[in-house]
Automatic annotation (TrEMBL):
Signal peptide bounds: none
TM helices/strands, residue ranges: none
Function comment: Acts as a global negative controlling element, employing Fe(2+) as a cofactor to bind the operator of the repressed genes.
Species for this entry: uncultured Sulfurovum sp
Cofactor(s) essential for the protein: Zn(2+)
Name of the featured protein: Peroxide stress regulator Ferric uptake regulation protein Fe2+/Zn2+ uptake regulation proteins
GO BP, sorted A to Z: negative regulation of DNA-templated transcription; regulation of secondary metabolite biosynthetic process
Family: Belongs to the Fur family.
Keywords, ordered alphabetically: DNA-binding, Metal-binding, Repressor, Transcription, Transcription regulation, Zinc
Free-text cofactor note: Binds 1 zinc ion per subunit.
Iron-sulfur recorded as keyword: no
GO molecular function: DNA-binding transcription factor activity; transcription cis-regulatory region binding; zinc ion binding
Record keyword DNA-binding present: yes
Length: 131
């Protein structure tokens, strides 16, 4: 289990109950949108507003605690920051599968006159269930 307090402090953020609750919700789901985070968190903290969720997500994203995963035609999902990987995103059901970036993949990303610092690769198609 991830230690959310350490994760926040290591990224120069205060470990508030709102932030740890949001991180717990994201960690539990793997990939989750803001509305679903709000529904999950408000079960435990009914007075927490959607605006507070948005504000904290932006701050945690800016401080590299979480990563936004853009979705085609729907709200972005969020995940905890982890080792570089690719997302295989089902355009039918929205399922997201993480997959490793291999050395062969990295070789194809070498671009002349450009030094790549980080990447987010999202590939859209149909998962095995939806094919």
């Amino acid at each position: 289990m991830t230690n959310y307090i350490t994760l926040l402090k290591d990224n120069d953020l205060k470990a508030t109950i709102q932030r740890t609750s949001i991180l717990q919700s994201i960690d539990k789901a793997g990939h989750i949108n803001v509305d679903d985070i709000y529904e999950d968190v408000k079960k435990q903290y009914p007075t927490l507003s959607l605006a507070t969720i948005y504000k904290n997500i932006i701050v945690m994203q800016e401080n590299n605690v979480i990563v936004e995963v853009p979705m085609n035609g729907e709200k972005s999902k969020y995940e905890l920051k982890k080792e570089e990987h690719m997302h295989l995103i089902c355009e039918n059901c929205g399922y997201i599968m993480d997959t490793e970036i291999t050395s062969k993949t990295k070789e194809t990303l070498i671009i002349e006159n450009f030094q790549l610092q980080s990447s987010q690769i999202n590939l859209f198609g149909l998962c095995q269930k939806c094919q």
